[in-house]
Amino acid sequence: DSGVTQTPKHLITATGQRVTLRCSPRSGDLSVYWYQQSLDQGLQFLIQYYNGEERAKGNILERFSAQQFPDLHSELNLSSLELGDSALYFCASSQGQGRGNTIYFGEGSWLTVV
Amino acid sequence: GENVEQHPSTLSVQEGDSAVIKCTYSDSASNYFPWYKQELGKRPQLIIDIRSNVGEKKDQRIAVTLNKTAKHFSLHITETQPEDSAVYFCAAPGTYKYIFGTGTRLKVLA
Q: What's the rounded Cα separation, in Å, for the pair B29 and A100?
């Protein structure tokens, strides 16, 4: 158990809908990272927050947004869903941000868009 | 730290043989290089890491070597076993972005 908690574990939804994925970082960690992993693909970096502030963006679509709340949990919002958004979405956390830090992954949220 | 190239993309070895996976990074300021193992449908898990003040680190059958001059680091697995079959990712984190290599699918053939 990494200490990073993600909910829901599985989600099936229809095209055009909106979903919210939730992440609680490890105790004491201030950074949260979101990644998308499509079938047999790598880890695509989406976005990173540190202590409530957005610090880095990757290849995140405009239909996607995220935030980190004062209690440090984070939510990833996916809207106007398309079939191609079906993927495993990982949240990870670290004590500091980026360079020099080890990040720990949650179990992921499986999103299926039908 | 924003550009990490990883090779090979797939690697098949006979059980008991060694496997080597190599990553190249572009940011001279990178100072920390972790390796993650991801089994099918599971989360990536840290298996070994190295900081820039050392050239090699070992943990049983796993080792990582770092060549800062050439900006590359490698994962070495000796005496491979079937349970080593997985996808392996390297990373060279930047100031904020934590970018991973494209992954290497290792198959250990019994």
A: 10
Question: How would you list the strands of the sheet with A5-7, edge to edge?
Answer: A5-7, A19-24, A74-78, A64-68
Cα separation of A78 and A103, whole Å?
23
State the nearest Cα–Cα gap between A77 and chain B, in angstroms.
20
Whole-number Å distance between alpha carbons of A107 and B41: 9
The one-character DSSP state at A100 is T
Structure tokens at A18: 């909106």
Give the best residue of B27, B49, B53, B96 to mutate against chain A (max A CB count within 10 A).
Answer: B96
Residue to test with chain B: of A49, A103, A107, A109, most B Cβ within 10 A: A103
Q: Per-residue pLDDT tens for A87-97?
A: 999 999 999 98
Q: What strands, in cross-sheet order, belong to the sheet with B104-109?
A: B10-14, B104-109, B86-90, B32-38, B45-51
pLDDT value at residue B52: 85
Among A43, A100, A97, which Cα is nearest to B30's? A100
Q: Give residue B11's pLDDT.
A: 98
- The predicted pLDDT at position A1 comes to 86
Beta strands A10-13 and A109-113 are parallel
| Distances B1 to A8, A34, A47, A75, B65 between C-alpha atoms, Å | 31, 17, 15, 26, 17
